[in-house]
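User: Fold this one for me? It's Branched-chain amino acid ABC transporter substrate-binding protein.
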Amino acid sequence: MKFQLKLVASAVLLASAGGSMAQDLVVKIGHVGPTSGQIAHLGKDNELGARYAIDELNAKGVMIGGKKAKFELVAEDDAGDPKQGTAAATKLADAKVNGVIGHLNSGTSIPASKVYSDAGIPQISPSATNPKFTRNGYKTTFRVVADDVHLGGTLGKYAVTQLHGKSIAVIDDRTAYGQGVADEFEKGVKAAGGKVVGREFTNDKATDFNAILTAVKAKKPDVVFFGGMDAVAGPMLRQMKQLGIDAKFMGGDGICSGELPKLSAGTMGDGQVVCAEAGGIDGEFKGGMETFKTKFKEKYKLEVQIYAPYVYDAVNVMVAAMVKAGSAEPAKYLPVLAKTEAYKGVTGVISFDGKGDIKNGALTLYTYKGGAREQIAVVR
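Assistant: Here's what I get for Branched-chain amino acid ABC transporter substrate-binding protein.
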């Protein structure tokens, strides 16, 4: 009798263990961003947005295909370098992750997209804005922000029609993002009837801009546009002040961070800087974004820089497709992801077009007053 009871007990334990194992589905979500280097503050912001989403999903007990999913974040650092970005992408492909959120920069996202396409792994960038990112015909490539055609063009028009720029100088850092957004800005200026009086370039590691700013000063611009990131824009603003260049300073989402006042050492005046974020919240979504930022600060004791909410939405959009497809296998949920329609995220409604671009992407225009970012308008 005792022997029989032991057999029954063993059978129950085995069944219980087997049931538990059957319910566990490990889903690996890759994330890549520059968590080292000049813009590490932006890369870490992105990674925390992904961790926030993963923690929340695990707490909810999400079911995929009848199994309880356990989400794991596989984070890689690309330092904003295209070669390191491709190496990170290869590493994630070899690890057979179920999907990738990233990269932050267009210059790393574009070459990495081929690696993910070859491996059949869906990739959603929360911040790569260069149009080429979604123009290579890869079925695995998506983004949740508007591209530079919209962003740069809108800023170019704004410089002429709202800032009344009559002589506009353009500088870029020669990266895929910086040069791309500067090109679109220049087109926007010309389309609005404005005049570009000079075009200069630097690089994304530069700290001394004396030569190019001296050339810019000679053109007497009333607006200076910089295509690049905040780590370069901050010192550039300081040196503009030192050289006595009294002009409005404009840039895309790369400079539009909470760190810019600190990086410029407090030298920028109220309303001097105008930038745009490749996303935008209005109406019913404004409260959701504000709630996210509050909870993010409570969780990490840090302010959101720029893209963390877009990373958060990208993770959730990807997982929603897995749930709907009943599978975390890339080949099975990819077609569902591509047909994402009217997903309500904290950053707004997300739908993808045939290229993987977000439909009706918004832009938010900002300035800075008292060392803090202040919204001007949401433009679609």
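One thing worth pointing out: The radius of gyration is 23 Å.
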